[in-house]
Amino acid sequence: MLKFILLLIALWLAIRFVSRLIRMTFTFSRDDQFGNRPDSFSSSSRRAQVEEADYEVIDSQIKQKK
Fold first, then answer.
1. Structurally, how many domains does the chain consist of?
2. pTM above the 0.70 mark?
3. pLDDT at residue 7 tops 80
4. Per residue in 9-63, pLDDT tens?
5. Chain centroid to CA 13
6. Contact 33, 27 (CB under 8 A)
7. What confidence tier does 65 reach under pLDDT thresholds 50, 70, 90?
8. Contact predicate 27/15, CB 8 Å
């Protein structure tokens, strides 16, 4: 009985691993397709815009406290 439960757990983990691997593969291939278009933004540029906005908010809060 214990072997059966361990087998089910191992099978569940293997299926979960494969599904995540497939999802990551499709995500990367979709990013590559849309990354070649000039009007699309890459995730790194969006991340940089968010970080820049965060710095501006922090800077304005510091100036308000002074």
1. 1
2. no
3. yes
4. 999 999 999 999 998 887 777 666 655 554 455 555 666 666 666 666 677 777 7
5. 21
6. no
7. confident
8. no
Instruction: Express the helix, strand and coil content of the chain in percent, nearest 5 each.
Output: 85, 0, 15
Q: Maximum Cα–Cα distance for the chain, whole Å?
A: 68
Q: Which of 34, 52, 54, 55 shows the shortest CA–CA distance to 43?
A: 34
Distant-in-sequence, close-in-space partners of 26: CB < 8 Å, separation ≥ 6: none
For residues 59 and 66, is the Cβ–Cβ distance under 8 A?
A: no
The residue range of the domain holding 27 is: 2-65
Q: Contact at 8 Å (CB) between 50 and 43?
A: no
